[in-house]
Amino acid sequence: MKCDIILTGVGGQGVLLMAELLGISALIEGLDVRVSEIHGMAQRGGSVLCHVRLGKKVYAPTIMEGAADIVVGLEPLETLRTIKYMSNKTLVLINIEPIKPYATTIGLIEYPKIEKILSEIHHKTDSIITLNALLLAKEAGDTITQNVVMLGALSATGKLLIKAEAIESAIKKRIPKKFVELNLRAFRIGFQHTKGIFGE
Question: Per the confidence metrics, is the pTM higher than 0.90?
Answer without folding.
Answer: yes
